[in-house]
Write a structure and sequence with these properties.
Length: 230
Amino acid sequence: MDVERMSALLKMRAEEEERIRRIEREDREDAARREWLAAFSAVQAKIGPIFRTNDNDHTKSKYADLADIERIVTPILTEHGFSTTSCPVPCELPGHIRMRLTIGHYGGHEKVYEDDFPLDSTGSGGKVNKTAIQAKGSTQTYARRYLKASALDLAFMDDRDGNRPKPEPEVETISEEQVMQLRELIEASEADEKRFLAFGKIERLSDMPATQFESAVNMLKRRLQERTGR
């Protein structure tokens, strides 16, 4: 028996098996990511505006608190196989809390959102009005609301006397499949989704008029080509 040849053959076999496992793993991850995107598009299409029902005595305005958001979005997220978790994580910035929001899907894919928030320990005049534990709790509640609103791209509206505003004239918008196609192109081209939405003067991808879809796709494809050279 040629020991060196046998060792080389065994090494080649092990490398080939590892390559096959890597390809299968990448295929599973890609399938889970696509399933996440499809479900997320369905969620965004179903979530309507969040109405501001709480009074801010300082600014004399209304705002939507965490309960307003959870009451609307949690049942829709659950219906489409999503779960969310929020927790504080180590933060090196003094006087701040870093919060992490994880949106997971039963298909196996998840996305993580993080941001740093200054401790809410003072009032509008700069005077300390909370204990340390109260400031921490208040900041975490605000951070959860902010992260979820940002991650889900929520729109907020005033609830005038409990009545919804009169609907605007209907404009045909893009389909769920087209929303998913745009989201995949945005990720592939590493575009900034917020800037993309601002450029189109829309709050969510699902709000895009159908007449703008083709030009949006072409713009993202040009960006992808510039980034990859293909």
